[in-house]
Amino acid sequence: MYLHLGGDVLIKTDEVVAIIDLEVTKIDHINHRSFDTIKENNNNICYISEPGREKTLVVTINNLYYSPISTNTLYKRSSSSLAL
Questions:
Q1: CA-CA distances (angstroms) from residue 79 to 20, 35, 39, 69, 71?
Q2: What pTM value is reported for the model?
Q3: What is the residue-level pLDDT of the chain in tens, covering all 84 positions?
């Protein structure tokens, strides 16, 4: 199944490693450091939203996606696609 991340971007649900709320990474210093490490180790970064409007970081096997869609909505989408 596929997960719609916003814009014209669809990814396979079995490639999703993590869905990270960007607001949480701003608050917690440990999460912020982990988030920085993820960004430093990945060259394939895709921005789906306009700068400053990112709500979620979706980590896949090969890419990072900055999505304007909330983590709750993406989670519900991924759960419903897995249940089909």
A1: 16, 24, 26, 15, 12
A2: 0.77
A3: 899 999 899 999 899 988 888 887 666 666 667 667 777 776 788 889 888 888 998 988 888 899 999 999 998 888 765 544
